[in-house]
Design brief:
The complex is a heterodimer of chains A (318) and B (513). Chain A has 318 residues and is of the alpha/beta class. In chain A, 36% of the residues lie in helices and 28% in strands. The longest helix of chain B is centred in the first third of the chain and has 37 residues. The two termini of chain B are 51 Å apart. The chains are: A alpha/beta (318), B mainly alpha (513). Chains A and B meet through strand 1, strand 4, strand 5, helix 2 and strand 6 of A and helix 3, helix 6, helix 13 and helix 21 of B. The structure holds adenosine-5'-diphosphate and magnesium ion.
Chain lengths: 318, 513
Amino acid sequence: MVATTKEPLLEVDTITKSFGRHVAVSQVSFSVPAGAVCGFIGPNGAGKTTTMRIAATLELPDRGDVRVAGRSALLDPRGVRRMIGFMPDAYGTYAATTVAEYVDFFARAFGLKGKERLRAIDSVTDFTGLRPLLEKPISGLSKGMKQRLSLAKTLLNDPSILILDEPASGLDPRARVELRELIRILADQGKAVLVSSHILTELSEICDEVAVIESGTIQATGDIATLSAGADAAKGMQVRARFLTDVDAAQRFLAEQNFVVGTRREREGVVFGFKGDQEALADLLERTVREGLRPVEFHGERIDLEDLFLHLTQGKLQ
Amino acid sequence: MSTKTDSTLVRALDRCEPLSDRFNPILVKEVRQFLRARSFGWTFVTLVVVVAVIGALIVLSDEPRPSADLGASFTALLVWMLGIGTLVIVPLQAYQSLGSEWEAETFDQLTLSGLSPRQILGGKWLSAALQSLLILLAFVPFVALGFLMRGVDLLALGVVLVIILATSFWASALALAVSSMARARATRVVLYVLIAVATFMGVGMVASFAMELLGQPDRIGQAGFLGAFTTFLVVGTVLAGFCFEYGCGQLAHPEENTSTPLRVLTLAGTVLVLAWVALAAWLGWIPSRAVEALGALTTGGLGVLSMLWTAERQRLGRRVAHDLARPGSRTRMLPAMLLPGGSRGAVFSYVLLSLGAVYTVFGAEFGGSFHMDESRWLGVWLLCYYSFFVAMPAALLARFCQRGAGAWAVRLVMVLFLAACVVVPAVAGLLFGSNFLVNIEHPLNPFWVLPEAADGSLSMPTVVSVVVLGVVGLLVNVPRIFRGTKEILRARAGRFDDDDPAVVRSRERMLEM
Ligand SMILES: Nc1ncnc2c1ncn2[C@@H]1O[C@H](COP(=O)(O)OP(=O)(O)O)[C@@H](O)[C@H]1O
Ligand SMILES: [Mg+2]
């Protein structure tokens, strides 16, 4: 069931955080409503972990604040901790501990007692499929299973906001698909989910919206469709064409046409940017044929997620 | 992974499942861990085996010795082994246990689970206490053996065991507090070694005291012993409580108000210790001169601890400021001197040390022997020295106290300032040929003035100079005390100096809720 309210459950309000001279996060703002999955995308070192740790009250922002269901991470950290589940990208476990003991310990730590605790443990281990592994030592779990264990721990107190830091990194494709399904189910239960990744495609299928961050500043926020449309308009589409006839002649001809920008040779074909609409593209194809060039491939592709990402970020390395 | 024996242990533990809900979760976890981990078992077995072997050697050594001697040397061995187990190994293990939460990156998870710093540190402390108790229990048969060899007084043995157990609890609290202060690996290693050395020396002291007591058990019956023993327990417990609370503060969220609990505890602890000493004197357990000495000692100790509050960050935290504005919040009821901030810390320290000073002046009366010796003013001189050597530098350097590292630097400056005040006049004395100064016998040297004062042989000029130092320190602090009080009044009225619009928005949202 998707929650009806669109009141943001998680509000990141102009946070800035420096480590020494280095500004890790600068004026970052975005929000996530209930029932939505928000992808937090940016290259390594962009400031995703820092932002998430601030939202989880583990780090103090220099300026700005994060509100969780109206509670301030700065003024009421304990209240915030009750509402959120944070799954860090790297997390430690205790030596010589079984899955059951690990989950049991955190259930106790969350203040669950007696039957209530057992019920919570059953529910999260069922949900994450860890039931058969309860007596296994944690050190023997695969990466995917460790992620599930971390998720199980995070879900014990039934948080309404989930913050997952790079949950898919290092998972095999199957585990990744399964993780996405779990995340979707959680969002459908009405939780707000913020999930980070340095790979956009990892998340595109499950995200209702994304916030793109680079070098500590937000580059774009919104749903993927709107962002792609905006990028299309700015950058146009990209057309790939291949000809049976002379490629140089084709390139020369195309370069003179309306809407065509930046032709270049790529293998046996020509690749060019096109700023016109579909109608104009059909016209161009017709003219090409009339010119006596013989296209065997003529194919305009809308900007894809990778391109969108490259478009939104300048690829600055840190 | 787990052997049969420990899985039965763990299973036995699981059988107490419903009961375990009452326990601190950290304690449950630690017990599970140390039952499974080998280290504790090995320590345990090694200690017992060493005692058994050496004990056997003592008993079997062909040197003919009287039985009493035998019992005494066997008991000495026991005290040493017990001391090493409970006073060195257990506290070091507690130190490591907290450190491992950072090294294994599990600490954040504990924080997020909603466990309070008190629960986390309390669990660690309880588990250390439990280990000490287990070690003690394992030694009971040997203790009985030592007793049967004769030459050992049962009461004295009991007192020794109580002292070992109590110091073990305190040492664990201290180790945890120290452990909470440093997260960098290199620092942690240095501190580990320091604790190891300190606790080992502690074992030496406890053991030598124990031997003395076991050698002359009739001293337990003498006047003064009961007073000294109980006062030792009260003071040690208060100090351990302080260490514990300090450690909790280190683990708390940086915006959390960690200063107020520490100040309240210090105030309560001071009152408790002073009241206990007075009661003991009234009961005739300690001589009235000792009341005065203990009062002065307490005042001096508070002066040193006051370095903590006096060099705190000046501003109220944003969280505290928000709390002050909220109608019906508990923080609102507190007197300003208990709220965080260096200037309010200075006021708190002045009040606390004045309490100690007044107590020292009138303390001897609790023993029913009022006297007009000059030594009763010791507390007042201590107050003056606090004002000059702690409060004054803190006020002058207040703006460097914004961060933790800066505050520690300021505390270091206080120590250096004191050293300079002692030494520089001596150098000047060399130049001007003043013997008093060369012998560092001047009012800026508390290490000369205070023993003189205890002897009651202070000259009038010295007395006046010390009072002037105190007044100067107080005057330098007046402006910041004024500002600090104003800040509280503004916060109570709901007016904040926060220039961060996001925080202002949060505050409005929170006040609506
Ligand atoms: N504790 C820290 N101390 C110093 N620098 C840090 C710390 N944490 C993060 N940084 C720096 O802040 C920047 C952002 O880091 P992070 O938030 O981890 O990025 P991301 O998670 O997007 O990869 C990086 O340049 C990183 O080096
Ligand atoms: Mg990261």
